[in-house]
Specification:
mainly alpha, Growth Hormone, Chain: A, 2 domains, two-stranded antiparallel sheet, 19 helices, 4 strands, 65% helix, globular
Length: 522
């Protein structure tokens, strides 16, 4: 009968250099565990101990590399590898041994011959989340949101090329078609070619789409709709891929937290971007000069975002191609209907001020709208930080209800606005609603999808945000076009009507079972 000692490797050998690595006395206990583990792996694989080599190290590394015929686990997402090893019981049992001894941080490399590259996992390592890649993503998101925040004066661009509120609503609404269409393809692309590639190229295209606006001279030509659609589609790709990128780096239960943390950078962009646009519009520049500088400045910020993205995705592991069911069957099987409706309401709720607040301010003789976005962003930033751990503690459903309620009330607060400072109340309520709704809806909506379809799930929920904008912007634009000649309270009626619709959706959500903690089986 063989002893356990006989099954252990005779020495610890670095697979690359062939040098023997003897552990220090301080690491003797951990080394003993790992040597025993190596012996058990040898037995399961029917390998001679000398065929197995490992290096003892406490170093945390970021992903799983494939070198020749060796698979080198370095703290990777083991659930993905486990799924692919189910058809090979011996290898799967070895993986269980690794998990059993909690040696993910103490074994730097375990070389197992004859494993093909088909066993490579397609997800990045699950870390604590707040590493170098996250903070580069944070910077990239802040720059892109800052550029997008400057588009609060997009109505000035439409006015410059000869459009009114109705045309503004049509341009924004039709532009959302591009965003919605690209979201469907984008989710599949993220899961197939990786969120890193989609993220980088989306922000590059977004930069060019901003500059293409400078070539548009009419509000009725197809070009303005195409350019707006390109801008929205690339922005959709940017946010969807960046959210997926950071979400895959933490366990599913922490998704709301990490998405919320990333989203705080967006509040900074929303706060500063409109101020830059207001500053450009408050000088002695003509409308045309102001619009040109707005787009050039936004493009420069988007370029800075692209640079940050480039550094963030360095070393990202590309997903391995494998058989996947048709996209429509995945959506039909896992699509959360009520969460999607809630996401559409949220999208409309946040897009309406960004699109129509500027024309409303002109109608109400308000000096500027920058104060609204400053209060909105500051309140949202504070609420996001305060609520960061509450989603994991109490679940997503309570915060969706609170967020929808605050959003409905915020629209009622627009009705009595007669001066700039009256915008503080709706801005504060909308900021808190945004802080609660976005991470909770994203987490609840994607939780029902298996982890391997996270790209599709994220893109689907983000697409529903765009659907809300696509439906609401043209309707509101047409309503204002015909209501303004009939009554001086057209905007007030619009805000009250939107609040009523949001209240109805809130009641429907409360009566449903949507948002309860439930994760799909892998």
């Amino acid at each position: 009968m063989r002893s356990a000692a006989a099954d252990r490797p005779s020495s610890l050998v670095d697979m690359h250099t062939g040098r023997s690595l003897m552990p220090s006395p301080a690491r003797q206990a951990r080394t003993s565990i790992n040597c025993s583990l190596a012996g058990r792996i040898c037995r399961n694989l029917r390998l001679h101990p000398e065929q197995l080599s490992c290096t003892i190290s406490d170093t945390r590394t970021s992903n799983l590399r494939y070198t020749g015929d060796w698979l080198n686990p370095r703290g990777d997402n083991w659930s993905t590898l486990s799924e692919r090893l189910r058809g090979t019981p011996a290898l799967h049992q070895c993986l269980d041994l690794l998990l059993e001894t909690r040696s993910l941080n103490s074994i730097r490399r375990i070389g197992i011959p004859l494993l093909s590259s088909e066993l490579l996992p397609d997800e990045p390592v699950q870390t604590r989340g707040y590493d170098r890649a996250f903070w580069l993503a944070y910077l990239s998101n802040a720059m892109a949101t800052l550029a997008n925040g400057m588009m609060v004066r997009y109505s000035d661009f439409v006015d410059m090329i000869g459009g009114d509120e109705q045309q503004l609503g049509l341009i924004v609404g039709v532009g959302m078609i591009g965003s919605i269409i690209i979201r469907v393809a984008q989710g599949e692309a993220i899961d197939r070619i990786g969120s890193a590639r989609v993220w980088f190229w989306s922000v590059v295209v977004y930069t060019f789409s901003l500059l293409l606006h400078l070539s548009i001279s009419s509000a009725t030509t197809p070009g303005v709709f195409l350019v707006r659609a390109l801008m929205q589609a690339s922005l959709a790709g940017f946010f969807g891929a960046s959210i997926t990128f950071v979400s895959l780096r933490v366990p599913p239960k922490r998704m709301a937290e990490i998405v919320g943390a990333l989203g705080t950078s967006g509040f900074l962009g929303l706060m500063i971007g409109p101020l830059i646009s207001d500053w450009l519009g408050s000088g002695e520049l003509t409308q045309e000069q102001m619009v040109q500088r707005m787009f050039w400045t936004a493009a420069a910020l988007a370029l800075a975002s692209a640079i940050a993205t480039w550094f963030a995705v360095q070393g990202a592991v590309l997903p391995v191609r494998h058989a996947r069911p048709p996209l429509l069957s995945v959506i039909r099987q896992y699509h959360p209907l009520m969460i999607s409706m809630t996401a559409a309401v949220m999208g409309a709720g946040f897009a309406i001020p960004a699109t129509f607040l500027r024309p409303f301010a002109i109608e109400a003789h308000l000096s500027h709208v920058g104060v609204f976005f400053v209060i909105y962003a500051m309140t949202g930033f504070g609420a996001r930080l305060a609520s960061r751990s509450l989603f994991e503690r109490y679940g997503n459903r309570p915060w969706i209800v609170v967020g929808l309620t605050l959003l409905s009330i915020s629209y009622l607060c627009y009705v009595p606005v007669t001066n700039t400072w009256h915008l503080i109340a709706p801005a504060a309520l909308a900021g808190m609603a945004h802080a609660l709704l976005f991470p909770s809806i994203m987490s609840a909506g994607t939780a029902v999808f298996p982890r391997r379809y996270l790209g599709v799930a994220t893109s689907l929920i983000l697409a529903m945000f765009d659907v809300g904008t696509f439906i609401s912007a043209p309707i509101i634009g047409i309503f204002l076009r015909y209501a303004k000649p009939e009554t001086p309270y057209a905007y007030q009626l619009m805000f009250a009507g939107v609040a009523a619709v949001f209240a109805v959706v809130t009641i429907l959500f409360i009566c449903s079972s949507a948002g309860h903690a439930r994760h799909a089986e892998e």
